């Protein structure tokens, strides 16, 4: 199988440098309109697709990002591996602004989003015990180190609804829960990628210390944006190293991300809803 890398760019990342033969393409999805057109191209002989999560010009809030349409559009373009690049606050003194964290766990506190492609007429349960792909996360870690970035391998990301930042009491509670970073977008994105059988890695770029830190107090969006500019350039450097690390030929995921739907569908074939099945053509066509 051929590798096709999908990059979901978060706040401050609305374009991707260094893509050959680049072209913005419109992808129709039965799950609605994706956040924007998708930028296709190649780097080091590997096919790449870039999607700005909030749309160019930052149109969609964390709640209104069309997560299902975005993952479905990436699947339709044949993406095998998604790297999510996001801004985040930090709960750890040693995870400082400017550092990158390769997230490996999530606590999902979002509550106003559609979280599954499945439902009445086609019920499915996939495991998200290990919501990120270790193979892809390793590649991101190496690429970050090669780019001279301070990268932390592993961390728990608290996904909050937003759009307001946390109160100090919430911030201290999340820290006591053992969370390492906080953001507003990686859920349900990671869950949907697993349902779509696409490997998913999350690179969280620290922009601030949230509000628990005695020396920092409230999150200041001006400071967040200033840190984002620097982080964005570092992220581009990291991304440009990934195609060579992953290579154009792709062996099946050793962790089974690309087979997540095997035995996941519960609804009896004669009870399945044809309308929902039609919408699931790209996501679950392999097993339906
Ligand atoms: C600009 S600060 C808050 C904003 O930044 C993060 O976005 P993303 O995850 O897409 O990089 C955070 O989740 C909030 O949406
Ligand atoms: N402190 C924070 N909380 C939630 N999302 C963020 N994105 C960047 N910083 C954040």
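-> sequence recovered:
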């Amino acid at each position: 199988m051929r590798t096709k890398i999908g990059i979901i760019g978060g706040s401050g990342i609305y374009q991707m440098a260094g893509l050959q033969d680049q072209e913005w393409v419109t992808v129709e999805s039965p799950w609605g309109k994706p956040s924007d057109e998708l930028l296709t191209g190649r780097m080091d002989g590997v096919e790449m697709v870039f999607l700005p999560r909030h749309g160019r010009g930052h149109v969609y809030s964390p709640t209104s990002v069309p997560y299902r349409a975005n993952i479905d559009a990436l699947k339709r373009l044949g993406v095998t591996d998604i790297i999510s690049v996001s801004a985040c606050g930090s709960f750890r003194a040693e995870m400082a602004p400017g550092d990158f964290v390769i997230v490996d766990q999530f606590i999902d506190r979002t509550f106003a989003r559609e979280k599954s492609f499945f439902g009445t007429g086609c019920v499915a349960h996939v495991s998200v015990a290990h919501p990120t792909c270790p193979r892809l996360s390793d590649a991101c870690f190496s690429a970050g180190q090669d780019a001279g970035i301070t990268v932390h391998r592993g961390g728990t990301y608290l996904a909050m609804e937003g759009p307001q930042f946390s109160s100090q009491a919430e911030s201290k509670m999340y820290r006591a829960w053992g969370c390492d970073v906080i953001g507003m977008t990686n859920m349900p994105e990671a869950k949907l990628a697993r349902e779509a059988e696409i490997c998913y890695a999350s690179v969280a770029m620290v922009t601030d210390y949230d509000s628990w830190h005695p020396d920092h107090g409230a999150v200041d969006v001006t400071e967040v944006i200033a840190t984002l500019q620097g982080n964005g350039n570092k992220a581009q450097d990291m991304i440009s190293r990934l195609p060579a690390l992953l290579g154009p030929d792709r062996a099946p995921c050793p962790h089974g991300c690309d087979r997540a739907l095997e035995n996941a569908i519960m609804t009896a074939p004669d009870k399945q809803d044809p309308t929902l099945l039609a919408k699931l053509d790209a996501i679950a066509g392999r097993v339906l």
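DSSP finds seven helices and eleven strands in the chain.
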